[in-house]
């Protein structure tokens, strides 16, 4: 994948399609039309002019909402935007139906090129971690720093609790699962997701749970919901099998940007044991391990993630006078 493959056009603001999407206080949503894709972008007004831009990319089944707890903690450090990847959140499916890791990476690159926001502080969780690793490897000019929360990088021995995600990639499984779970309530589904993704689901507030149920109900009405999930899961599995220069571990070695790696000790989807391998693969890396965190540390322990990011800026000489207030200060 190279910049020559990615024709760009000026971002076109269009009316957000779904008013039911939750927007936290201080956030705003807009939709951006680009060749072949329409992306919903969540943002917060920066604390002041001149702050460096940041872009956040969610994981499988997630959305830009996954970053709503972290973004306000970084208001004094960066100018934050979070994407809904094609087919997730409030972004419609891509015109070409490409949900591969490379396809999602192209979507991120198209947005950054069209918006002329690069280089950015790039964040990725899970699938978004694989996507942003690929972006940082092939377009280093777009990335100031890279922060990866439980990135979905290839594992030889996948945890048993991650098998259902891998099985979802098999043809026909998504349709079968839909039939088998047609009587499950949104509450049941959300409890299952929280149990899988959080180290301690008990930290979710009652209001947070109600918001998650409301969002689940909305997503289940989308005709492409399961297709986007299955094809993106297939994209992760396929990315795990790629070798040579396109392999994710090889691309991790090519990343030039200072990298912050964050792993949770109770992560049931990405093995905690992969933390040290990742720290060796990324040439300029720092590692934060959170023993009680699960798969979504930026939602479970946003203050710890914000503090670690601020330390990354300080360590790399990017904590200038214009970013001297914010997380950890």
TrEMBL record:
Pfam families listed in its UniProt record: Abhydrolase_1 (PF00561)
InterPro entries: AB_hydrolase_1, AB_hydrolase_fold, AB_hydrolase_sf
SUPFAM superfamilies: alpha/beta-Hydrolases
Keyword Transmembrane in annotation: no
Keywords linked to the UniProt accession: Hydrolase
Cross-referenced Gene3D superfamilies: alpha/beta hydrolase
Domain AB hydrolase-1, residue spans: 55-300
A molecular-function term among this protein's GO annotations: hydrolase activity
Coiled coil region boundaries: none
UniProt protein name: Alpha/beta hydrolase
Source organism (scientific name): Streptomyces dengpaensis
């Amino acid at each position: 994948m190279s910049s020559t493959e990615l024709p760009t056009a000026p971002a076109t603001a269009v009316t957000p399609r779904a008013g039911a999407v939750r927007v936290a206080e201080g956030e705003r949503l807009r939709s951006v039309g680009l060749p072949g894709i329409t992306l919903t972008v969540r943002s917060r007004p920066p604390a002041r002019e001149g702050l460096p831009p940041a872009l956040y990319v969610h994981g499988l089944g997630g959305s830009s909402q996954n970053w709503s707890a972290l973004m306000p903690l970084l208001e004094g450090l960066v100018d934050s935007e979070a994407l809904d990847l094609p087919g997730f959140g409030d972004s419609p499916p891509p015109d070409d139906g490409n949900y591969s890791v490379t396809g999602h990476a192209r979507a991120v690159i198209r947005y950054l090129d069209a918006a002329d926001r690069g280089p950015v502080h790039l964040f990725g969780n899970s699938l978004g971690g694989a996507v942003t690793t690929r972006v940082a490897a092939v377009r280093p000019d777009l990335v100031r720093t890279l922060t990866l929360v439980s990135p979905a990088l290839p594992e030889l021995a996948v945890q048993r609790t991650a098998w259902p995600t891998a099985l979802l990639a098999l043809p026909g499984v998504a349709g079968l699962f839909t039939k088998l779970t047609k009587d499950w309530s949104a509450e049941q589904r959300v409890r299952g997701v929280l149990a899988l993704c959080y180290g301690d689901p008990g930290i979710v507030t009652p209001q947070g749970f109600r918001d998650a149920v409301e969002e689940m109900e909305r997503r289940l009405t989308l005709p492409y919901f399961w297709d986007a999930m299955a094809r993106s899961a297939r994209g992760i599995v396929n990315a795990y099998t790629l070798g040579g220069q396109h392999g994710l571990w090889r691309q991790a070695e090519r990343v030039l940007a200072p990298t912050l790696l964050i792993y949770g000790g109770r992560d049931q989807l990405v093995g905690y044991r992969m933390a040290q391998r990742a720290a060796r693969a990324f040439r300029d890396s720092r590692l934060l391990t959170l023993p009680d965190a699960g798969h979504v540390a930026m939602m479970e322990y946003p203050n710890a993630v914000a503090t670690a990011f601020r330390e990354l800026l300080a360590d790399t000489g990017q904590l200038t006078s214009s970013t001297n207030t914010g997380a950890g200060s």
